[in-house]
Design a protein that fits this description.
The complex is a heterodimer of chains A (456) and B (313). By secondary structure, chain A is mainly α. Chain A folds into two domains: 140 residues, no CATH class; 217 residues, MetI-like fold. Helices cover 78% and strands 0% of the residues of chain A. The two termini of chain A are 56 Å apart. With 313 residues, chain B is α/β, with parallel strands linked by helices. Chain B has a domain of 189 residues: 3-Layer(aba) Sandwich (Rossmann fold), CATH 3.40.50. Helix content of chain B is 40%, strand content 23%. In chain B, the strands form two sheets. Chain B has a seven-stranded mixed sheet with strand order 1-11-10-4-9-8-7, with helices on both faces. A four-stranded antiparallel sheet of chain B has the order 3-2-5-6, covered by helices on one side. The chains are: A mainly alpha (456), B alpha/beta (313). The interface between A and B is medium-sized, with 22 and 27 residues. The complex binds adenosine-5'-triphosphate (ATP) and magnesium ion. The site of adenosine-5'-triphosphate has 13 residues of chain B, from strand 3 and helix 4.
Chain lengths: 456, 313
C-alpha cells in the first residue's frame, strides 16, 4: 500500500510522463507494424521469385511500352517489387532511425546508453540490408526490363550480363543509391542515438527529395539531349545550360551587387546623387524582364558581339538580378548594429577594416541568402533569354562561355508549344525538375539565414 | 556585499558630503525650494559662459586640454564653447543631467562624432601638442591612442580571444599575441574567469563580463586615454563595483574620462569632476570643474550643488 501510493501519485500528477509513455507506445506500434509489413512483403517477394521466376514477375510496364508512350514521367515504374519497395521500404527507412532507440527505451526502460546504441545499430543494420536487397531486386527488375527492350533475354536474370548492357548512369545509380541509402539510414540512426537531431532529420529529408525525383523522373530523361522524338528527348543540355548560366550570372552579379551595396550603405554620402541611385536601384528591380532582354540583345549580343552565348545570357541575367542583390545586401548590411561599427572604430580600425572584418562577415549570411533568392528568380526567367535568342535545340554541352546554350524554362516553353502530346508530358517532367531545383535553392536560403543569424 | 559597498563609498568619497547627501536625498526638498533652484538656473545660464573652476590641489600634467570646444549635429548645437583640462593618469568624471551633451563631449575626444553624418566640432583639443579637432589629424590614429568603452557592452560576435586581439592585429602589433591577450584580460580583471574558454563567443559572457571584455579590448591597443560612457549603467551593483575598482586600477597607467549619472559613483572613482548643464535651448555648457572632493564638498555654483544633491537632473 505504502509502496504503491507514491508511484500512483506520480502517474496521476505527471501528465508529461504519461504523454511520453503513450508516444513511446505509438512509436512502438508503428515500428512493429512497419517492420512486420515489410517482412511480409519481403517474404512474398521471395516466394514469388521462387515460384514464378524473375522473368515473369518483371514483365509489367516495360521499357518498350514506355518507348511507345513517349518517355518522361515514369508512371509505369512500380512493378510489384517496385511497389513494395516504394510503399514499405520508404516509411521504414525514414521512421526507423527515429523510432529505433525510442523503441528500445520503451521496451527496456533504464537501458544503459551504450547498450541502447549497440542494440539500435543491431536493429538498424538488418533494416538497411533489407532495403538494400529490395533496392537491388528492384533495380535488377528495371534492368531486365531494359534488357528486354534492347533485345537481350532477361529471363536468365544474369545481373552481370545486364550490367554489360546497362548505361553507365544506371550502374552508378544502382551503386550509389543501393549503397548510400542503407549507409544513410545507419548514419541517421547513429546521429539520432547521439542526440544530434539535426543531421538525423536532414538525412531522411534528403532521401525524401531524392525519392520524389527518382520516382517521377526517368534518369534517361535527365541524361539525354533533346530529340525530335519525345521518347528520346531529355533535358541534359537544358539542365547543364541552366547551371552553367547561373554560375556565371552569380559570379558577375554577386561581387558587383555586394560592392554596390557596400558603396551605398557604407561609403556614399547621403546627398541627392546617392538618393537618386538608390531610387533607381529600387525601380530597376521592378522593370519587366523582357526589357532587360532587349537591352542584353543590343549591348551584349550585338555591340559586344557575344553572340547568342552563355555569356550573353549570363550578363543579361546579371543585370536583371543585380537590383535584387543590391537591395538585399543593403538590408543585410543594415542589420549589423551601429554599436559593432563603433566598437571596431574605437580600437583604431579604418573604415575598410571595419567593413572587411566586421560588417561584411556579420552580413555575409544575409547577402548569400539574397543572392540565392535572386538566382532562383533568374532560373525561372524566360523572356530575356528568348529576346537574346537562346536556342531551344541544343544537342551538345556548352564547354566555353561563348557556346550556344539553352535553359530549362526555354526547353519547357518549346515543348509546350509543340503539338504532340508526348512533348507536353516531358515538358511536365522538366517543370518538376525545375521546381525541385527551385525548392532546393530556397531551402538552402532558409537554412543559411537560420544558421548565420546573430543575436546581438 | 551591501556592507562592502557602503564602506567602499565612504573610504573614497569625501566624507564631509556623505551625511548631507544622505539627509537631502532622504528628505525631499520642499516644493518652494525646488522652484527657486529651477528659477536660479535660468538666471544663471544666460549672462555668462564662464564656468567656475576650482584650483588644482596637486601638480598634474594634462592629457588633453579643451579650448572653446563646440559640437554640432547639423544645425543643432549640442555643446557650446567648453574649456576643460583633462589631467593625466587621473579619473575625470563628466556629470550632468540627461541630454546636456556629456556623450557628445566624450565623443569629441576620439573623433567618434566623425561617424555621424552632419556632426561637426569647432575649437581646440590639445593632445600632445596637436589639435585633435583639426581635420588633417588622422582620426584612426586618434582612436587608437584614445580608446572607448560604451554604455551598452558591445563585444564582437567572435571569440573572446579575437575580441581582444583584433585591435592590436589591425594596428600592426607584431609581438606575442597570446601574451597581449592575457595581459589585457588580466588588467581588465577578466582573465581568471575566461582563461579556459578563450574560444567562446564574447556574446556568451554575462553583461558585466562583456563590459570587462570591452575594457580589455580597449586596453589591448595600448591607448593613452580611455573614454567610458556610462560603463556600468547596464550592470548590477556587484558588476558595477568591479568596473569601478578596475577604473581605479587603470588610472595608474591610463587617463580615464568617465560619464556617469551616478553621483556616488562619480564620488567613488573620480579625481576630477566636470559638471555640464543644458539650458532651455538644450545647448550644453560647462558649469563647474575641479577636484572631485572640492566639487562634492564645496560646490561654488548653486546649480552644481543642486545637481549633486539630487535636486534636479
Ligand atoms: N546623433 C545625433 N543627432 C542629432 N542630435 C543628437 C545626436 N546625438 C545627440 N544629440 C543631441 O545632442 C544633445 C546632447 O546629447 P548627448 O547624447 O551628448 O547627451 P548626454 O548628456 O550624453 O545624455 P545622457 O545622459 O542621456 O546620455 C541632446 O539634445 C541630443 O538630442
Ligand atoms: Mg550619453
Amino acid at each position: 500500500m505504502s509502496a504503491a501510493a507514491p508511484s500512483a501519485q506520480l502517474t496521476a500528477f505527471s501528465p508529461r510522463v504519461r504523454i511520453r509513455r503513450s508516444f513511446s507506445v505509438g512509436f512502438m506500434v508503428a515500428a512493429l507494424l512497419a517492420i512486420a509489413i515489410s517482412m511480409i512483403m519481403l517474404g512474398a517477394l521471395v516466394v514469388e521469385i521462387a515460384v514464378d521466376g524473375a522473368a515473369r514477375l518483371f514483365t509489367d510496364g516495360t521499357a518498350v511500352e514506355r518507348e511507345a508512350r513517349g518517355g518522361g514521367i515514369v508512371t509505369d515504374l512500380p512493378t510489384p517489387v517496385g511497389m513494395a519497395w516504394m510503399t514499405w521500404a520508404l516509411p521504414v527507412a525514414i521512421l526507423l532511425p527515429f523510432i529505433g532507440p525510442r523503441l528500445l527505451n520503451s521496451l527496456v526502460p533504464g537501458l544503459p546508453r551504450l547498450a541502447e546504441r549497440l542494440i539500435g545499430l543491431i536493429v538498424l543494420a538488418p533494416a538497411a540490408v533489407f532495403i538494400h536487397i529490395l533496392y537491388v531486386r528492384f533495380e535488377s527488375a528495371y534492368l531486365i526490363d531494359y534488357a528486354r527492350a534492347v533485345g537481350i533475354d532477361g529471363a536468365s536474370g544474369n545481373l552481370l550480363q545486364l550490367f554489360g548492357e546497362a548505361s553507365g548512369f544506371q550502374i552508378v545509380r544502382l551503386l550509389v543509391i543501393g549503397i548510400l541509402l542503407p549507409l544513410g539510414i545507419l548514419a541517421a540512426g547513429w546521429f539520432w542515438s547521439q542526440r544530434m537531431r539535426k543531421p538525423s532529420m536532414l538525412i531522411p529529408a534528403i532521401m525524401i527529395i531524392a525519392w520524389v525525383v527518382y520516382l517521377f523522373i526517368d534518369p534517361w530523361f535527365l541524361s539525354s539531349f533533346p530529340s525530335r522524338k519525345p521518347a528520346d528527348a531529355g533535358i541534359f543540355s537544358a539542365v547543364t545550360g541552366t547551371l552553367y548560366m547561373m554560375v556565371i550570372t552569380a559570379a558577375i552579379a554577386f561581387p558587383l551587387g555586394v560592392g554596390a551595396a557596400i558603396y551605398l550603405e557604407e561609403y556614399a554620402r547621403r546627398n541627392w546623387f546617392s538618393r537618386m541611385i538608390q531610387i533607381n536601384v529600387s525601380n530597376l528591380a521592378g522593370v519587366p524582364s523582357i526589357i532587360y532582354g532587349l537591352l542584353g540583345l543590343q549591348v551584349f549580343v550585338r555591340v559586344l558581339e557575344f553572340e547568342r552565348s552563355v555569356l550573353a545570357g549570363a550578363c543579361t541575367m546579371a543585370l536583371l538580378v543585380m537590383p535584387i542583390i543590391i537591395v538585399s545586401a543593403q538590408e543585410a548590411l543594415r542589420t549589423v548594429p551601429p554599436s559593432m561599427r563603433e566598437a571596431a572604430y574605437a580600437v583604431g580600425a579604418t573604415r575598410w577594416q571595419v567593413i572587411r572584418f566586421h560588417v561584411l562577415p556579420y552580413a555575409f549570411g544575409g547577402m548569400l541568402t539574397g543572392n540565392i533568392l535572386a538566382m532562383s528568380r533568374a532560373i525561372g526567367e524566360t523572356a530575356p533569354l528568348i529576346a537574346i535568342g537562346a536556342l531551344t535545340f541544343i544537342a551538345f554541352l556548352a564547354d566555353s562561355p561563348t557556346d550556344d546554350f539553352t535553359v530549362l524554362p526555354i526547353q519547357v516553353f518549346n515543348w509546350v508549344a509543340r503539338p504532340q502530346a508526348g512533348f507536353h508530358e516531358i515538358a511536365a517532367s522538366a517543370i518538376i525538375v525545375l521546381m525541385v531545383i527551385l525548392l532546393l535553392m530556397n531551402a538552402a536560403a532558409i537554412i543559411m539565414r537560420q544558421r548565420t543569424r546573430t543575436d546581438w | 556585499m551591501a556592507r562592502n559597498f557602503f564602506t567602499m563609498m565612504k573610504s573614497t568619497a569625501p566624507s564631509a558630503t556623505e551625511p548631507s547627501t544622505a539627509e537631502r536625498t532622504v528628505a525631499p526638498p520642499p516644493p518652494s525650494m525646488k522652484q527657486d533652484a529651477a528659477a536660479g538656473v535660468g538666471v544663471h545660464l544666460d549672462p555668462t559662459l564662464e564656468a567656475v573652476r576650482h584650483d588644482f590641489t596637486e601638480e598634474v600634467e594634462m592629457a588633453l586640454e579643451l579650448r572653446d570646444v563646440s559640437a554640432f549635429y547639423g544645425s543643432f548645437q549640442a555643446i557650446d564653447r567648453i574649456t576643460l583640462p583633462v589631467p593625466r593618469n587621473r579619473v575625470t568624471a563628466l556629470i550632468g543631467p540627461s541630454g546636456c551633451g556629456k556623450s557628445t563631449l566624450l565623443r569629441c575626444f576620439n573623433r567618434m562624432n566623425d561617424l555621424i553624418p552632419g556632426a561637426r566640432i569647432t575649437g581646440r583639443i590639445d593632445f600632445g601638442g596637436r589639435n585633435l579637432v583639426d581635420p588633417n589629424v588622422d582620426a584612426v590614429e586618434v582612436r587608437r591612442r584614445i580608446g572607448m568603452v560604451f554604455q551598452k557592452p558591445n563585444p564582437f560576435p567572435k571569440s573572446i580571444y579575437e575580441n581582444v586581439a583584433f585591435g592590436a592585429r589591425i594596428n600592426g602589433y607584431s609581438g606575442d599575441m597570446d601574451r597581449l591577450v592575457e595581459d589585457s584580460l588580466r588588467r581588465a580583471a577578466l582573465w581568471d574567469e575566461v582563461k579556459d574558454e578563450l574560444d567562446k563567443s564574447g556574446l556568451a559572457l554575462s553583461g558585466g563580463q562583456q563590459q570587462r571584455l570591452c575594457i580589455g579590448r580597449a586596453i589591448a591597443v595600448q591607448p593613452e586615454i580611455i573614454l567610458m560612457d556610462e560603463p556600468a549603467s547596464a550592470l548590477d551593483p556587484v558588476a558595477t563595483l568591479k568596473i569601478e575598482d578596475l577604473m581605479r586600477e587603470l588610472a595608474e597607467d591610463y587617463t580615464i574620462v568617465v560619464v556617469t549619472h551616478n553621483m556616488q559613483q562619480a564620488g567613488r572613482v573620480s579625481d576630477y569632476t566636470a559638471f555640464l548643464l543644458a539650458g532651455e535651448e538644450r545647448v550644453g555648457r560647462l558649469v563647474e570643474f575641479g577636484p572631485t572632493q572640492d566639487i562634492f564638498t564645496n560646490p561654488l555654483d548653486q546649480r552644481t550643488e543642486d545637481y549633486i544633491t539630487g535636486r534636479y537632473g
